[in-house]
Amino acid sequence: MAEAVKTSDAPQEVLLHVEGLKKYFPIRRGVFQRHVGDVKAVDDVSFDVYRGETLGLVGESGCGKTTTGRTIIRIYEPTAGHVIFKDQDLAALRANEMREMRRSMQMIFQDPYASLNPRMSVLKIVGEPLEVFHLANKEERRERVAHLLQLVGLNPDFMVRYPHEFSGGQRQRIGLARSLALNPDLIICDEPISALDVSIQAQVVNLLEDLQQELGLTYIFIAHDLSMVRHISDRVAVMYLGKIVELTDRDTLYAKPLHPYTQALLSAIPVPDPVIEETRQRILLEGDLPSPANPPKGCNFSTRCPQVQDICEQEEPPFIEVEPGHLCACHFVKPAT
């Protein structure tokens, strides 16, 4: 499988700019549903996505990856922050304006068994975006759906079938075809391979890469599998408890991780060489992930960090550029001089 590598040093176009994004879910209790707190699922997240690249978003379960993706596309309404896409702040758009912007940004959901309507045929599922936006008549929709199914490696004759007649990998291809119906610029892939067999995962990832090169797509790829993220991503953002703690290009992150949490994540990736595997030092984190309803004071990672000191428990570290293109949020990682 060929890896995607940037070969040009020319300035890249920023397709999506996320600044200070927050998504809090209110906690209500009592008969009168009094507001007693918030679950800080996404807490002050900022990053850019360049046109034509794949930005990987990784972290353990509950860190806010999926919520970030859904808040960007406004499936969830943001609590605060800005999402700039095509010179428009998506967080400030009215519902009808946001509806038009969704033609240029789509999402592939994690569970191919739950994201497709079991009462609708493939023709109806894939062609629905065209119908909603009045972009084609009945015959044109049928032709477009046939082309999209071919594009994702499915037989166009399958359009008369229903989701229960397909395997998980085939269903995910149908979801991908649906996301391509409106020729979007940005696709948010929310763990699109985690529910699939390992043998099928590589097929879907290769398909995503082929379509990216053919159609000029831009991806935000949300995943747990760090080895797969390394393969498909150009840059990687590491999330922990609602915040991005490190962001840099793929090769730098895996060769020189700076944040203690990133180092612990990467140490958990098995190496197929038993000799090397025996000599590797695993970084085992103690304790459980803190609740986003009651995050620690100071650094969110302070309760589990093997390098924790007093300042970590008192002050939140700034998310700063320590090397060109390499950002990190740790008190003990300083900018290069």
Verbal overview:
The two termini are 38 Å apart. Strand 9 (235-240) and strand 10 (243-249) form a beta hairpin. The longest helix is centred in the middle third of the chain and has 18 residues, at 198-215. The protein has eleven helices and twelve strands. It has one domain (14-104, 184-328): P-loop containing nucleotide triphosphate hydrolases (Rossmann fold). The model is unreliable at 1-8 (pLDDT under 50). It has helices at residues 65-72, 95-101, 122-132, 138-151, 168-180, 198-215, 226-232, 250-255, 260-267, 274-279, 310-314, and strands spanning 14-29, 34-50, 54-58, 80-85, 88-89, 105-108, 186-190, 218-223, 235-240, 243-249, 320-323, 326-328. Helix 3 (122-132) crosses helix 4 (138-151), helix 3 (122-132) packs parallel to helix 5 and helix 4 crosses helix 5 (168-180). It is α/β, with parallel strands linked by helices. The strands form two sheets. An eight-stranded mixed sheet has the order 6-7-8-3-9-10-12-11, sandwiched between helices. Strands 2-1-4-5 form a four-stranded antiparallel sheet.
Fill in the keyword field for this structure:
single chain; 337 residues; alpha/beta; Rossmann fold; eight-stranded mixed sheet; four-stranded antiparallel sheet
CATH superfamily: P-loop containing nucleotide triphosphate hydrolases
Strand order of the largest sheet: 6-7-8-3-9-10-12-11
Structural class: alpha/beta
Which regions have little confidence, pLDDT < 50, spanning 5+ residues?
A: 1-8
| Relative helix content | 25-40%
Total strands: 12
| Backbone CA Rg | 21 Å
β-sheet strand percentage: 15-25%
Total helical segments: 11
- Give the CATH level 1 class: Alpha Beta
> What is CATH's topology name?
Rossmann fold
Distance between the termini: 38 Å
